[in-house]
């Protein structure tokens, strides 16, 4: 077979592969029109990367050179649309509220435990080393309910929202008391809970949620069912959880809209298929999210090391604004750093 014929055949095969990828990539930008299109949006970077990889084969074929150029442009545009310049170190700091009266630095750690995590000791060890002020946890199965009793002395303030099924419910653990006169509340039978935590005299609503998978599952309707609780969060609040939705999806934007919050990160993948090796985490999705609003100064949002779950822990460092910036005698000693990979 001649070289020209090989290039023609290769170009045709690449074109037949690039066409559905392009349609899927473009369709994902219309996620607000139907949940099925929003499901495509979660894989926007994957589709874009595949188009970029196919573009050289199209460019080498005289018949498909224009298609190759368009595929490369579409792929690069989609990646920049998602990441901006955040892939360049130092050009994507966490957007934080600014102003006088910034209080001490606190830590919130978000983690989907995985209901059958084979290495629970790694989670407990990490909590002991990082010592976050608040933990927001998902997939708190009966196994985990027993393991987390070991933290009762350190984290006496807790809210447990149980859900039927093997995956379990959600939980908030705090070493700081709940705001005086308040109690945590759960949505009955649903993976959502909220508690007002006292950070040195400043009450902050801490909410945790675990969304179902995207369409054809019921993620869209679940978000709407959480709407009243999201809208009822106080003016200063933090929401964390496993959204099973990428930050650029309509689902994630809808959560932010209902809660009146800004998405904070992280952008790097936090989840990968549990049977994939750890080195393939770059091909995963950033579905473990943190949101905030009100008088919160966010110093950093970063992922931590693997702890046996298919999700990475996410650590947020923040300071509530206080009238005089007074110290909290229980403050966690922490260094405020920029967004880490």
What's the gist of this structure?
By secondary structure, this protein is of the alpha+beta class. The protein has two domains: 3-83, no CATH class; 106-320, Endonuclease/exonuclease/phosphatase (Deoxyribonuclease I, Chain A). The chain is built from eight helices and twelve strands.
Describe the structure.
This protein is of the alpha+beta class. Helix 1 (3-27) runs antiparallel to helix 3 (44-59), helix 1 packs parallel to helix 4 and helix 3 packs antiparallel against helix 4 (65-83). 45% of the residues are buried. Helix 5 (120-130) links the parallel strand 1 and strand 2. The protein is built from 8 helices and 12 strands. The protein has 2 domains: 3-83, no CATH class; 106-320, Endonuclease/exonuclease/phosphatase (Deoxyribonuclease I, Chain A), CATH 3.60.10. The longest helix has 25 residues, at 3-27. The strands form 2 sheets. The protein has a 6-stranded mixed beta sheet.
Q: CATH class of the largest domain, anyone? A: Alpha Beta
Structure annotation, total helices? 8
Oligomeric state: single chain
Give the CATH topology of the largest domain.
Answer: Deoxyribonuclease I, Chain A
**Fourth-tier CATH superfamily name of the largest domain:** Endonuclease/exonuclease/phosphatase
- Radius of gyration, in Å, reads 22 Å
Low-confidence stretches: 87-100, 329-341
Q: Provide the CATH architecture of the largest domain.
A: 4-Layer Sandwich
Helices and strands, in order, run as HHHHEHEHEEEEEHEHEEEE
Determine the fraction of residues in helical runs and give it as a percent range.
25-40%
Overall geometry comes to elongated
Most strands sheet: 6 strands, mixed
Please report which band the strand proportion falls in: under 5%, 5-15%, 15-25%, 25-35%, 35-45% or over 45%.
Answer: 15-25%
């Amino acid at each position: 077979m001649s070289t020209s014929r090989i290039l023609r055949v290769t170009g045709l095969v690449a074109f037949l592969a690039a066409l559905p990828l392009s349609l899927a990539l473009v369709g994902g930008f219309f996620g607000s029109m139907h949940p099925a299109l929003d499901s495509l949006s979660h894989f926007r970077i994957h589709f874009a990367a595949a188009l970029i990889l196919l573009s050289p084969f199209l460019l080498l074929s005289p018949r498909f050179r224009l298609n190759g150029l368009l595929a490369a442009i579409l792929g690069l545009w989609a990646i920049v649309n998602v990441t901006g310049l955040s892939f360049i170190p130092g050009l994507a700091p966490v957007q934080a509220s600014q102003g006088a009266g910034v209080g001490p630095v606190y830590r919130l750690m978000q983690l989907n435990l995985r209901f059958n995590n084979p290495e629970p000791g790694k989670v407990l060890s990490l909590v002991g080393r990082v010592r976050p002020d608040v933990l927001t946890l998902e997939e708190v199965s009966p196994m985990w309910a027993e393991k987390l009793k070991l933290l009762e002395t350190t984290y006496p303030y807790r809210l447990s929202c149980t859900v039927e099924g093997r995956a379990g419910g959600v939980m908030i653990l705090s070493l700081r008391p709940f705001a005086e006169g308040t109690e945590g509340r759960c949505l009955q039978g649903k993976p959502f809970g909220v508690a007002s935590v006292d950070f040195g005299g400043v009450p902050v609503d801490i909410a945790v949620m675990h969304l179902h998978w995207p369409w054809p599952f019921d993620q869209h309707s679940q978000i709407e069912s959480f709407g009243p609780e999201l809208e009822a969060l106080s003016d200063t609040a933090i929401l964390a959880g496993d959204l099973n939705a990428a930050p650029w999806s309509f689902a994630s934007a809808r959560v932010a809209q209902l809660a009146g919050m800004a998405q904070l990160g992280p952008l790097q993948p936090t989840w990968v298929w549990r049977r994939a090796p750890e080195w393939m985490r770059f091909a995963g999705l950033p579905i473990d999210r943190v949101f905030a609003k009100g008088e919160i100064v966010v110093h950093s949002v970063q992922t931590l090391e693997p702890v046996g779950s298919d999700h990475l822990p996410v650590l947020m460092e923040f300071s509530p604004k206080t009238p005089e910036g007074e110290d909290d005698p229980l403050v966690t000693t922490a260094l405020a750093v920029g967004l880490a990979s």
